[in-house]
Amino acid sequence: MADRPNIVILQVDQWRADCLGFAGHPTVETPHLDAFFRQGVNFSKAYAAVPSCIAARASIMTGLTPRSHGRVGYRDGVPWNYPVTLAGTLAAAGYHTQAVGKLHAYPERSLLGFHHVVLHDGYLHHSRSHGSHEDRDDYLPWIRGRRGPRADFIDTGMGCNGYTVAPWCYDNSEHPTAWVADESIDFLRRRDPSRPFFLYASFHRPHPPLDPPRDYLALYDKKELPPPLRGDWVDHPLRRGYFDSPVPVKPDEIDRARKAYYAQITFIDHQINRLTHALHERGVLSNTWILFVSDHGDMLYDHGHIAKALPYEGSARVPLLMRLPDSQKTLARGRQVDAPVELRDIFPTCCEIAGVAVPPSVEGKSLLPFARGEAPQWREAVHGEHEWGEGSNQWLSDGKTKYAWYSQTGREELFDLEKDPGEIHELSRLEPERLSKWRTRLAKELAGREEGYSDGTRLIPGKKATPVLACALTGA
Length: 476
What we know:
Mean pLDDT: 95
Strand order of the largest sheet: 5-4-6-1-7-9-2-10
Number of domains: 2
CATH architecture of the largest domain: 3-Layer(aba) Sandwich
CATH superfamily of the largest domain: Alkaline Phosphatase, subunit A
Shape: globular
Low-confidence stretches: none
Strand content: 15-25%
Distance between the termini: 35 Å
Helix content: 25-40%
């Protein structure tokens, strides 16, 4: 058992796929993740099929499509009733399993198959308004033990969905990002050395609040940023729909928000390096696979939007990077894979790494054939969606073309991602044949859905969208 490979998933929250140095970002600094790429494989067309926290994490933990796990939008307080989970599968196969940081499950203390969970979900409105948050969060009593009984992780004054900026008000080592690294490193000390381990280290940032340590914010103070993307199809002002913190609209405030977001990223990159060093010092790095992934991206003012839940690349495309262990010297390093992959593919990938049979319920596919340089049969496109009121959307992408349909209004958008990765030019009126082809594909994809979006041949706008399907509510 002890010779079987270890697995570490580094989960981040709301990290855009393009915000990596090796991916060519002109500003952001990620030196340690850049080194991961030189030792691994990058999946450049990885998507969150539902780009927001709960649904994305359900895909990772179950290996299911959103249609099957039932979370197709955002709603707190719906129990997780999944009999098969990634952690449970690996635990049953003899792995010592540990989660640190954000799970965003419900009830919050759900183990999801892990032997132990050290929890910090960040500020969740549902939890904070339904009893003692200290009972549902392990970071909060920790920081109060250091800073007094009234200390909180929102002491900077920033809201968890806002884009105003304030530097972290305590020591760098007390930031939630550093705490996740600390707790993950401590697990390496107290793990069962006779077993392989599965560590899920989940950082709440760079999700707001935008509260990076002051010295990390200073790294970006004098950097010139390229302007946010704005498509020639955009016909609206900046969306400002968050109630717990304002969304700045002045150019200097927007510039500061973007720099703070990048500063959060660099701080996480440095904390990841601390964990990598600990793996080395414990003598297990050479037999450990590391997967770095986000649950979704952040529009970060592109096309007049902030946050997530939208079909555009800034929101729906995620970083997915696999660092290969030294024991896999025959696998090529520094490889980029452009096939359309999803978060549900992480579950079977971990199973293949561990030498564990993939449970029959899992709908994803292992990514290891790509790491071996093979060309496996693969899905043609990713189907994504998000219930979002009037903005509720359904979309398809094969990494080269993207088609989006807004189910409440019938609005359609078509983008050529090969020629126009920033989605600046919308093509639905210019390429009607191409549009019709993708519309038909989406109609087939949505056939049989409980909302009635499609009869199998045509899309039907105006049907009521819901964030949670019946299968998630009933546990069926």
